[in-house]
Hints:
Layout: E1 9-14, E2 25-31, H1 37-45, E3 63-69, E4 72-76, H2 87-90, H3 95-101, E5 109-115, H4 122-133, E6 139-143, H5 150-164, E7 172-173, H6 182-192, E8 196-197, E9 209-210
Parallel strand pairs: 2-4, 2-5, 5-6, 6-7
Antiparallel strand pairs: 1-3, 3-4, 8-9
The structure holds guanosine-5'-triphosphate and magnesium ion (MG).
Amino acid sequence: MKNHLKQARYIITETDPKLLPLSLAEVTFVGRSNVGKSSLICALCENKKLARVSKTPGRTRGINVFEVRHDRWLVDLPGFGFSVAPQKQREYWPKMISGYLTSRPQLPLVLVLIEAERGPSQLDFSFLQWMSEKKIPCAFVATKVDRLSPAHQIEQRARMASALGITPAEMYWVSAQKGYGMNELRLDVAKALGLIKLSPGEKRESEEQEISC
Ligand SMILES: Nc1nc2c(ncn2[C@@H]2O[C@H](COP(=O)(O)OP(=O)(O)OP(=O)(O)O)[C@@H](O)[C@H]2O)c(=O)[nH]1
Ligand SMILES: [Mg+2]
């Protein structure tokens, strides 16, 4: 299957969302520190050097923008839940994230990443509550599924989906490290960016029509 995201390149890091230029469409990766946002962007684009990955939480400090095609972006946000600040402040996601999410007119897809092994935390639920109050739709991605045994994966996927109020099939289930679940997510990201158009009701590769700009 052709990877429509492979030509992504880094274009800008911004800390003030108000200063970000407009795009035609942008797919955003958000979630707790260390959940695997940058790793997932690298895996989707098949470019290990694209976004910085680190064992230390808090690696991504600004809003990092990668352009897949002219004005069609992937956006890597800093993680929430990690800070050197006291516990009370740490439990509130930074202004940079909320400022970005409430100020972008072109957000066809916001992907909320949650570690498969841990499931959603209290902090994830308060973030999701805030997203719902702001009426920002999102889709869920369970990350690092390679850390679970195959037998445990089915059970944990069902448990996580139920906690999030969705069906297991509605949640992406991925491992950036092993490459699991990449094709399905790639296709939906490319679709959200308007890079490909699928025939109604079909997801077959042969039915994809590339859109040129
Ligand atoms: N086992 C496993 N580890 C992963 C996977 N994806 C990421 N990791 C590891 O998780 C750690 C954090 O990955 P990052 O991609 O930097 O996470 P992030 O969400 O961008 O982190 P911040 O920018 O700090 O918020 C790194 O040590 C990665 O190697 C995966 O699919 N499987
Ligand atoms: Mg990161």
